[in-house]
Amino acid sequence: MTPNHPPRDDGRPVRILVVGCGDLAVRVLHGLAGPAGPAGPGWSRHLGVLGRTEDLVVRTANMVSLSAAQLGRSCPVEPLVQDLDDVAGTAEAIARFAPDIVFAAASRQSWHVLSQLPPDRFARISAAHFGPWLPMHLDPVLKLMRAVRAAGSHATVVNAAYPDAVHPALHGAGLSPHLGIGNVANSVPALAAIAAEHLGCAPADVQPRFVAHHFVSHRISRTGDSGGAAFDLTFRRGTDDVTAALPTDTLFHRMRTDYRRTGGREGQMMTAASALSVLEPLATGTTATVHAPGWHGLPGGYPVRITPDGTALDLPPGLDRRAAVEINLDGQRHDGIARIGEDGLVEFTEEAVEVMRTELGHHCKELALADVEEAAVELAARYAEYCRHE
User: Fold this and answer.
1) Which domain holds residue 374?
2) I need a labelling partner for 369 at 20 to 30 A (CA). Which of 139, 241, 252, 268 fits?
3) Which helix (H) or strand (E) holds 102?
4) 42 pLDDT exceeds 70?
5) Is 103 within a domain?
6) Alpha helix positions (H), the chain
7) Which one of 182, 200, 215 terminates a domain?
8) Cα–Cα distance between 49 and 244 in angstroms, integer?
9) Domain membership flag for residue 47
10) Pairwise CA distance, residues 143 & 125, whole Å
11) pTM, 2 dp
């Protein structure tokens, strides 16, 4: 069990800082402020939203707090205007707000931007998979985590930006967030619903345990298969292991057909729900089994048990931590990342490097933490040029 820092027990509100003002951040803010259920006597929280554009930050904070008031819930939302590029300034803002939980939803380029390309270009550039876009997500999280450390904060940090790879890249430097959200978690509700149909029971009676990298969760929602990447998927109904009764091929196929869901920006409702499934038990000090990527710097996604005492992997019987990590390392390679060293050095696969060179003129075989900002700036510029010459 790895300890987290549960909500204060001195009667003060739980303080949650959301970093970012994009679509996902706003959805999560509304979820944290609005009534997710009966507000018991211990329900009290103070939210903060941190972003670099003053007007947007203030408007977002006011919209969330006033929307909560419309629903009968009092939840202050404090605007913090700060650019993550200014690590010292961000550290001061964090120290001043004193969060118990930080939710990071900042990225230089959201994952769904590529889906807005014309279909032929999207198909070509997607052949590199998601790994080569790591600098766009790693840069803001690296700066945020440096600020968290400089602030002396003991907040539990939950990150939304490609945690499957961002967290292991930061782990060796002692900068990994505690948990990620989305990715592996986004597949679990459909898997439980489909399994329940096969078993003739309610979805709540089925407990999936899914160990899978971002590559797998992304792939099955679009093609109905794992693309050859390793994963581990088991099901329990009560105390019984019912995995043998549930053919994986059928489950994945039905996720792509009968249980297909909205993708792109509009589909971030699922990612926001995955974030809230992690943030709520952390905020309320309750116990929950969730699925989360990047647990304490590990690559890929895992079932995780959250309790008032901390978090721990909740792997199925017969699968140990080492084997689960190996499964996710295979998915990592399929996602275009050959290796992430203990020093944070990221090596991309030759296939991914070649696609990025051919499509964008961007050649990055290795990425060190010291070079992340430069790589992110170059990649953003090359992608902008790519979009201008459709």
Assistant:
1) 334-388
2) 268
3) strand 101-104
4) no
5) yes
6) 23-33, 54-70, 87-97, 119-126, 134-150, 163-171, 184-199, 214-223, 248-256, 268-284, 321-334, 350-360, 372-388
7) 182
8) 46
9) yes
10) 28
11) 0.94
